[in-house]
Design a protein that fits this description.
Protein name: ATP-dependent DNA helicase
Radius of gyration: 28 Å
Strand content: 5-15%
Enzyme class: isomerase
Largest sheet: 7 strands, parallel
Strand order of the largest sheet: 11-12-10-13-14-9-17
Family: Belongs to the helicase family. UvrD subfamily.
Keywords: ATP-binding, DNA-binding, Helicase, Hydrolase, Isomerase, Nucleotide-binding
Bound molecules: adenosine-5'-triphosphate, magnesium ion
Pfam families: PcrA_UvrD_tudor (PF21196), UvrD-helicase (PF00580), UvrD_C (PF13361)
Length: about 750
């Protein structure tokens, strides 16, 4: 009935309309990038609420990031007004937290349990490995942490892991898993993977809980379904109340507690599956029809996002993958400009090219920096772009990377708040036990731990009863007593959240320490802490009833993409992010950088056909983010781990048909030529233009001239080659520390 006429169906093509109005059976929408999958989900929700008389609280829509959830909610709001508040539009993790908070007691947790992110769980695993006296060389805690995460994504608990273990390593892992899990429970904490796994467990152990949610959620929708892993897959099955996968003889196992299955609608694109390393499996999308026998599948083929040139490039690249269904994605937006290619001499030159091109686009084509995104393969690559952008005064924002919430000082303050909310949160407690330094050394900490273990009490209890712990030096004991008193005092205060945070910084001496240190880094640490306090203030304003636990939960769940600045044009600043973070987004202008074999595709994938296919999907994701203009670039030489790497051009470049590409520099430029240019000193005029330039050989006392700061005298030189840092006294301009490799300096 695509003929249905309704304002909510305006601006949709017939297939999209079909998908929006489809009723009854499970629905799969598979389609390439930019074909309106997310748009269909949004319109479908609006349509359900306004035409099918579905109540907002009956809708659960799962998105991949909180940012996507927020956007979807806003769009639904715009379509049908603010009735949508009771609707659950959120990530898997957020939905699970909500469910678990209500039901935590059934699983032996309090409703204010802590959430451990990846860094916390790695710390905990490191403690566990020490406790089990495992040699960190043979059994690296990080690797154990990752493997436990994989097991949880497969819904394998530690008993099963133990039963299945065949090698010594697997048995050791299972043991560490069991201990880790016990420590988590003692800390009243769940890690990210637990959030999903424990919700599945909850539904399986408590049919009444499962039934409650099945009655509630009559419509379940999932965006980016290709990136769900097994645990998430099972969670969806449990939620909609459909039987477990068919058994070997094809018999479905009945389930559902007598509730009619909910309507399920999932959308995805197998070509955009880029989270295999987190256990995501394309299988979930490829076998949807088998998993849900009455399912209907709708294909979308028109792309509304990109020019035909961009789309043809994307199609050409992805078609090299063998294990995929061919698709025919087209666009009626015309060819648009060609893709621009650039081979830089090195990564600084590459960043400089981007900066200059953004300026040029602003001058010649009215493109604002906010319409531009720069993508790279790994987080670390952002640094060079940041340095160049700062130097050239180009406003930018990094999404992901060393994220705000991963900074040491931010984590410290949060750890204090977490301890105040949950004294049993041992990881947080031990993080701050001697921060700032208060004379509780590692030895004292270990003694308390041993005491607590022997007495079978939590670490916090151990601290409170430290007097009974044998062997503690009086000085340590006094320090511990003061620390306990400090926390109890803070806990007893009736303060608003932001005031509490402020009070923590004051009463622990944390703020004073930073203020008086004289280390310039500490200044930015203070800024970050103030930023966190404003986050708390914003939270208070938005959630007058919100508790400390609510706040910590919100903070724990912010995903990378949440840090994209708000507003239509991303606040007029260039967005820098990894390809993974770019999923689902779109930008008028995209720079795809680091297209070198060994960088992108990632070193790890070379010679691994399956991983190479995943890298190619990542390239497909990257290319298809671009609406109008796409740039592809590589560097002939790139410093990697402190030494120059001469990477060949990415194979993905060769896969883009050459008539779609317009090279701004010699596409054949090789590492060899670049290296030569580097040796032979190029004139200063080309230096800031990104032409080849050698690094001047400087020593203290040398006189130099800098493009911006003028005349100066070298004070110190540290490090060598690409890494060399030089401190220069520019007289009234002050002292500056610069990276020699690309500072526009001439030796006089
Ligand atoms: P991705 O695979 O990257 O997640 P998608 O399939 O979810 O992409 P959307 O983000 O929903 O695609 O849509 C891509 C762009 O095309 C958006 O700007 C959207 O508003 C627009 N669009 C989608 N369908 C239509 C349509 N029928 N008419 C006009 N514009 C559309
Ligand atoms: Mg989408």
């Amino acid at each position: 009935n695509p003929a249905v006429d309704h304002p909510l169906l305006d601006g949709l093509n017939p297939q999209q309309r079909d998908a929006v109005v489809h009723e009854g059976s499970p629905l799969l929408i598979v389609a390439g990038a930019g074909s309106g999958k997310t748009r269909v989900l949004t319109h479908r929700i609006a349509y359900l609420l306004s035409e099918r008389h579905v109540q907002p609280q009956e809708v659960l829509a799962i998105t991949f990031t909180n940012k996507a959830a927020k956007e979807m909610k806003e769009r639904v709001d715009r379509l049908i007004g603010p009735r949508s508040r009771a609707m659950w539009v959120m990530t898997f993790h957020s939905a699970c937290v909500r469910i678990l908070r209500r039901e935590a007691k059934r699983l032996g947790f309090s409703s204010s349990f802590s959430i451990y992110d990846q860094a916390d769980s790695q710390r905990l695993m490191a403690m566990v490995c020490r406790e089990l006296e495992l040699d960190p060389k043979r059994y690296p805690p990080r690797s154990f942490s990752a493997q436990v995460s994989n097991l949880k994504n497969e819904l394998i608990d530690y008993d099963t892991a133990k039963d299945k273990a065949q090698t010594h390593l697997e048995r050791t892992l299972a043991q560490a898993y069991a201990t880790y899990q016990r420590r988590l429970t003692e800390a009243d904490a769940m890690d990210f993977d637990d959030l999903i796994m424990l919700t599945v467990t909850l539904f399986q152990l408590f049919p009444d809980v499962a039934e409650h949610y099945r009655r509630r959620f009559r419509h379940v929708m999932v965006d980016e379904y290709q990136d769900t892993n097994h645990a998430q897959y099972m969670l969806i099955r449990e939620l909609v109340g459909l039987p477990e996968r068919l058994t070997v003889d094809g018999e479905p196992v009945a389930e559902g507690g007598g509730v009619e299955p909910a309507e399920l609608c999932v959308v995805g694109d197998a070509d955009q599956s880029i989270y295999a390393f987190r256990g995501a499996t394309i299988r979930n999308i490829l076998e949807f029809e088998r998993d849900y026998p009455q399912a209907r599948t709708i294909l979308l083929e028109q792309n509304y996002r990109s020019t035909q040139t961009i789309l043809s490039a994307a199609n050409a690249v992805i078609s090299r993958n063998e294990s995929r269904k061919p698709k025919n994605l087209w666009s009626d937006q015309g060819a648009g400009p060609k893709i621009i290619g650039y081979v830089a001499d090195n990564e600084h030159d590459e960043a400089m090219f981007v900066a200059q091109e953004v300026d040029r686009l602003a001058d010649d084509e009215d493109v604002t920096p906010g319409q531009v995104a720069v993508f790279y393969r790994t987080n670390a690559a952002s640094r060079v772009f940041e340095e160049i952008f700062i130097r050239t005064g180009l406003p930018y924002k990094v999404v992901g990377g060393v994220r705000f919430y991963e900074r040491r000082e931010v984590r410290d303050l949060l750890a204090y708040l977490r301890v105040l909310a949950n004294p049993n949160d041992t990881v947080s407690l031990r993080r701050v036990i001697n921060v700032p330094k208060r004379g509780i050394g590692e030895r004292a900490e270990a003694m308390v731990e041993a005491f607590a273990t022997r007495e079978r009490v939590s670490f916090w209890e151990g601290l409170r009863r430290a007097e009974e712990a044998p062997g503690l030096a009086t000085r340590s004991l006094n320090a511990i007593k003061e620390f306990v008193a400090l926390l109890e005092d803070l806990r007893g205060k009736e303060l608003k959240l932001s005031e509490l945070a402020e009070e923590v910084l004051a009463s622990t001496g944390y703020r004073t320490e930073l203020e008086t240190s004289g280390d310039p880094q500490d200044e930015s640490r203070l800024e970050n802490l103030n930023e966190l306090i404003s986050v708390a203030q914003e939270f208070e304003e938005a959630n007058p009833e919100g508790t400390l636990v609510d706040f910590l939960e919100q903070v724990s769940l912010v995903a990378d993409a949440d840090q994209i600045p708000e507003g239509e044009d991303h606040q007029g600043v260039v967005t820098l992010m990894t390809l993974h973070t770019a999923k689902g987004l779109e930008f008028p202008v995209v720079f795809l950088t680091g297209l070198e074999d060994g960088v992108f595709p990632h070193m790890r994938s070379l010679g691994e056909p399956r991983e190479l296919e995943e890298e190619r999907r990542l390239a497909y994701v990257g290319i298809t983010r671009a609406q109008q203009r796409l740039y592809v670039s590589r560097a002939a030489v790139r410093s990697s781990w402190g030494s120059p790497a001469f990477n060949p051009a990415s194979r993905f470049l060769a896969e883009v048909p050459s008539d779609l590409l317009d090279w701004r520099s010699d596409p054949q430029k090789s590492a060899w030529t670049a290296a030569t240019v580097r040796e032979t000193r190029a004139p200063a005029a080309t230096s800031s233009r990104g032409g080849g330039r050698s690094i001047p050989n400087l020593s203290p006392g040398d006189r130099v001239t800098h493009d911006a700061f003028g005349l100066g005298t070298v004070v110190t030189v540290e490090g060598v080659a690409e890494k060399a840092k030089v401190k220069i006294d520019f007289g009234s301009g002050g002292e500056k520390t610069l990276l020699l490799a690309y500072a526009p300096i001439e030796k006089l």
